[in-house]
């Protein structure tokens, strides 16, 4: 009897070869999601453990930072007990983890505000600066890297390599100071340090904390121009350093893709060079490039300490630096957790984009 044939001669439909049952696909998807969530949980737990033990290893007594060096011993003992620092280390970590998961990073010694409140105030400034910086860096770095790979050994390639070399070699604080000297002090093309002029600062209604967005929403275009004038120089500086790294990596990935056999086959079929480069080679190169851009963005969002210090930019990096200089460990550790969470989140986002760009990584 032929396979797939009923004893009475009725044909029976057979399942397509290689097609997995829906239940098995769902099971594989749930297993992958479970592993994904477990990795997130373990990573965040490791982040909390690292920040906790950093706070205990650094030779700064948080009690003395609060009450002062000249406080009586009974006051020091009482504050230590109130903070739970007289308990065993494992109990302190349990309490610390519970508070952090509730968004409680303690109170800043420097500002006397809850640390989370200070971070909410400082982070939008860093977000605005880093977002414009990565837009400039990726928007110019990717096309330059592609062009350098296509014109390998040519003038453009040499120019991109010089840009990358300067970006890696020159200290960012020196470039920032030179940029302020030339474009602000000498030429007067842009506004100076700070985020906005004092004349606008107290009249501006802040909704999102992103001043470009807030001034555009309220139609205050004069204030918008002032904010942009303050923003463009530090953002261009960060964008340049991102461009140096992204263009270099794009060139490397594109050289690898242009040497693949599918490019030779596409040329043999008569496809245009522009279609081969931008639609096929760049699309494949974008898979590893996603991680490069995501980590560059995370590096900018972590505070860009030197840039914010040079330009007196009231962002997360300047906040953490000032807190460290004043032994405000609650603020330092709170900022560190926020930075680590940003890196975790952007890594997860790059994993999701991986699956969208490369079907081979999807669960089958």
Automatic annotation (TrEMBL):
* CDD domains cross-referenced by the UniProt entry: TM_PBP2
Keyword match ATP-binding: no
User: In terms of one coarse class, where is the protein primarily found?
Assistant: membrane
InterPro entries, per the entry: BPD_transp_1_N (IPR045621), MetI-like (IPR000515), MetI-like_sf (IPR035906)
Pfam families associated with the record: BPD_transp_1, BPD_transp_1_N
Q: Does the keyword Cell membrane apply?
A: yes
From the Swiss-Prot or TrEMBL record, state where the protein is found.
Cell membrane
Residues forming the ABC transmembrane type-1 domain are 123-350
Keywords of this entry: Cell membrane, Membrane, Transmembrane, Transmembrane helix, Transport
Please list every transmembrane segment annotated in the UniProt record, as residue ranges.
Answer: 29-54, 129-150, 162-185, 227-246, 285-311, 331-354
Classification via SUPFAM superfamilies? MetI-like
The annotated topology with respect to the bilayer is: Multi-pass membrane protein
Q: Which protein family is named in the record? A: Belongs to the binding-protein-dependent transport system permease family.
What this protein is called in its record is: ABC transporter permease
